[in-house]
Every structure is written in C-alpha cells, then in structure tokens.
Amino acid sequence: MAPSRTLYTARRSRNLVMVALSIGATLLGLGWLVLILGVLLYEGFNGLSLKVFTEMTPPPGADGGLLNPIVGSLMLTTLAVAIGTPLGMLAGTYMAEYGRNERLTSVVRFINDILLSAPSIVIGLFTYEIMVAPMGHFSGWAGAVALAVIVVPVVVRTTEDMLRLVPDTLREAAASIGLPRSMMITRIAYRAAKAGIVTGVLLAIARISGETAPLLFTALNNQFGSANLNAPISTLPVVIFQFALSPYADWQRLAWTGALIITFAVLALSIGARALSTSGKQS
Amino acid sequence: MVDVALHGGAAVTADVAPRAKVLGRLRLNDIFFRNLTRGAAIAVLIILGGVMFSLVAGSWPALSTFGFNFLIEERWNPVTERFGAIGPIYGTIVTSFIAMLIAVPVGLMIAMFLTELCPIKLRRPIGIAIELLAGIPSIIYGIWGLFVFAPFLQQYIQPALIAAFGEIPLLSTLFAGPPYGIGVLTAGLILAIMVLPFITSISRDVFDAVPPLLKESAYGLGCTTWEVMRFVVLPYTRVGVIGGVMLGLGRALGETMAVTFVIGNAHKISGSILAPGTTISATIANEFTEAVGDLYTSALIALGLILFVITFIVLAVARYMLMRIEKRVG
After folding, report:
1. Does A163 lie at the interface with B, CB-CB under 8 angstroms?
2. Burial of B72 by CB count in 10 Å (0-12 exposed, 13-18 middle, 19+ buried)?
3. Are B130 and A123 inside 8 Å of each other by CB?
4. Does B35 contact A at CB distance below 8 Å?
C-alpha cells in the first residue's frame, strides 16, 4: 500500500501546484490589465479638461489641447472605413456566395489572413512607396489609404464568416421565388448577416484608431490646425508618440490624456461590437 | 415573376416585351454584381502582391549595393552610408524569443484555468478581460512601458538580476551592465503582455474543441486535472496550440510602437539583455522620416522586406496548423 500512496500524494501535489500556477497566471493577466488601465486613468484624468477638445496642440511650455489631432484622426478613420468597407464586403461576398468552392477563394482567404496579421509598419512602407514617393509629399490621403489597407482584411474575414452562417434554406427560398442571385445576396443574405458585418466594421475601426506605425510616414504630423487632406495632417496616435518622447512635462501630460481618449474609444468600440454580436446570436 | 413583384405591378398579364427587357436587365445586374465581387476578391490578392512588389522595388538599391553582406553586417552608419541588418534582426528575434518564453506558458495556463477550473459564471467575464489586453492600442503599451514599467524595472528588478547572476559565468554576460530600465529585456516583457491574449484565446478555443467524452474518460480513470491537460487535452490540440503560438509570434515580430518606446534604439549587438538594442520595426519607425539619401531610405525598406518575409513565413505556418485542426474538428 505504501508506494501507491506516495505516488498518489505526488500526483495530487503536482496537480495542486499546476492548479495554483494556472490561477496565478490568470491573476497575473488580469493584474496587468488593471495596472495599465489604472495608470492610464490616473495620468490621463490629470490633464483632462474641456480645453483638450477645443484648443490646438501647443508649442512646448504653452497651454493647449488636442483638437487638431482628434479631428485629423476622425477624418482619416472615416475615410479609411469608407474606402475599405465596400471593398472588403464585396470580396467577402464573392468568397461566401459565388466562389465558395473555388480555388481563388481559398487562395484569397489565405492571403487575407496573412494581411490581417501583417506588421502594420510594413503597410506604412507600402503606402509610402505607392502614394508618398510618387506625390512627392506626405499627405492625409496617404494616411487614409494605409489605414484602409488595414481595414480591408478585417471586413473580408467577418463578411465571409457571417455570410456563411446564413442558412442555405433562406437562399433556396429566395431562389424558388425567382429572385436573381445578386438580389438574393443584397436583400436576403446581407440582411441576415447585418449584425455580424457591422461588428466586423466596428472591430476594424477599433483596430485602426490606435494604429500609429502606418501613419508615421504617410500622414506624418502637422503642428498647425490643418484639415487639408492633401497636406500632412496630425493624428492622435502620432501626436501621442511625439509628445510622449519629448522632454516637456506639459507635452507628456497631453500625451497621457490623448492615450486615455484613444484607449477608451477603442475599448468602447470593441465592447460594443461584442455586445452587438452576442445580441445577434440570441435573436 | 420577380420583375412584376418588384415593380409592384398587379398587371400579371403585362406585355411580354417589357418583361423580357426587365429580366434582361436583372440578368445584367447579376453578371455585373458577380464580377464586381470577383474583382474585389482579386483586389485583395493584388494588395498583397503590391506590398511585396513595392518592398522589393524600394529595397533594390540597398540590396544591389550591399548584396548578401546586408544580412550579416552589423555596421549601421548613415553618414558613410554603410548599412547592415544583423543588429535589428538580432533584436527582433531576441525580443520575440523573450516574449514567447513568458507568454506561452502563462497563456496556456490561463487557457487551462478558463476551460477546466473556472466557475462557468466567471468564464466569459475573465475571457473578455484577457481579450481586452489585445484591444489596447500598442502605443499605449509603449507610453506605459516608458513611464511606468521601465523605471520600475530599473529600480527594483534589474539591480536584483545583476546582483543575483553577476557571479555565474554564462548568466553574468546575459545580465551584465548598468540597469538602464529601457532595453531588450523590457521590450521583450512588454511584448509578452501584448501577445498573451492571442495565445490565450486561441488555446482556449482549441481546448474547448476537445470532445468532452475524451476528457470524461480520463477523469473517470482517476486522472487529476493536470493529468487530463497534460496527457489528453494538450496532445489532442497540439497542432492548434502551435498555430496559436505562431500567430502570437507573428505579432511579436512585427510589433512596432511599444518596442520603439522602450528598446533604446542602439544599433549594436550586445550579449546582455539589459542593454539597449533595436528591432527591425523600431529602426524603421525611428529613422524613416529622417532618412536622407536614397540609399538610406532603401536600406530601411530592405529591413521592412526582411520583416515581411519572416512574418509571412511564420504566419503561413500558423495558418496551416490552424487549418489542420479545423479540418479535424469540423
């Protein structure tokens, strides 16, 4: 009896250690989240005031806000979504509806997955090569294109996945009353998959609103309140990058405040997207 | 009959000629829409091709000037226009390695907690909280790392590491030097936090896909939770877990902003992981807008090409592995 009892204790204690480690790992993960958000809230609220939303970025040592980068970020994000969403939706539609069993679809899906996780700085270099270098100057347009290249794969992926979840009986019902295929897709399938596709677009917005790397050498930055898309334009992430690395305390404070704004916008978007997708599943 | 229904026409006995016309238009619409979507799908391919092509074209001046030496040369001197990529490549690999060394066990442990141990009610909230870590933009990790994490490491952790390993032959080089706070180790730790949610959520999903019957039989034989994980769940999901790890690795390799803040940007290979270094992405982010001269710009684009090729291979392997497990489950 004795040896088997020791074996049993050894197994039990090993199990206990592992269970403790896994609980510890979870606490560690949650702890990081709390730590990051806590510091962000503390430092961000320090500098948060109405001025942040109404005044331009200041020169070092002066008072100011983040109005121009906020406007710039909103403009570029809107444009990127306006360019990227239709393209992504159409491509996803082809993959789920027309070319379900085609070779092209599996190739596009593979490539799309690669683009989905490609380093965003490489997307920035690509946009620099195709837009900034030929035009001869940095511009808001180039920034929007760089962000759109990031939007496309997200939307392609969710559109395809969501359309595939639409039951084929719906399609057959539409076909049986003689609806042409294009109409079946736009009037039946899109409607059934709407919540999912909107979720995808929200996730894409969340993803690009924090992106910095692709904007560094496309949209660059602009000290002045320019809303001209044909010129360099300032965006929130790039301003945070510049201000945080500067030696000026008031710039650093603004960087924290900007970081707070971005993080909460992004987290609200991703939580909203999640809520939307679960409510869609239940109905 | 669609044409009639669409136009709200009660006149079912309408002329044949206009009906044919409407049907013809619908047919044209159909063909148009089909080709439009097909064109969009092909456009996705063209984007990737464009990325590849533009990187190769942009890096050509540097690659043709330095040839293979570009890959093994350490010197990075914009003034004399001598460029070598081994410093940034080394930094990229070492920081990602540190990140995976920490994130893989921790991520798997969290996934084990979520699938086997966690009370059902807490499962969703904890899972979402961990995934929120992935939602935080990388620049936030950067600013947090620079102002909070690096000073903390400099004050408490790094002196302790130096003191603890200073006497041991091999480790003393690894942990040599003054505690700067910023450096390769700091970057690796920040990356570990950033890739943790990817590894956790994919492992959790593949763990969940294990047939309950398998686990229950093991429990029925008297296995402990850990033994079920180790001898049933992990072997069953091995391919998927590796896929998830590779996906996380792809993230770590390409991550830019967080690393740029905390790595110190030194084009120098140092034996110590406490020393500042640089990665491919950090070099590009720091120097690209200030690069003067075609050769300098081109050398930076060549770095981008190397990064893209490395991540492409890693991600392709990841996708292949995940596809294999999907086939088995589906």
Report:
1. no
2. exposed
3. no
4. no
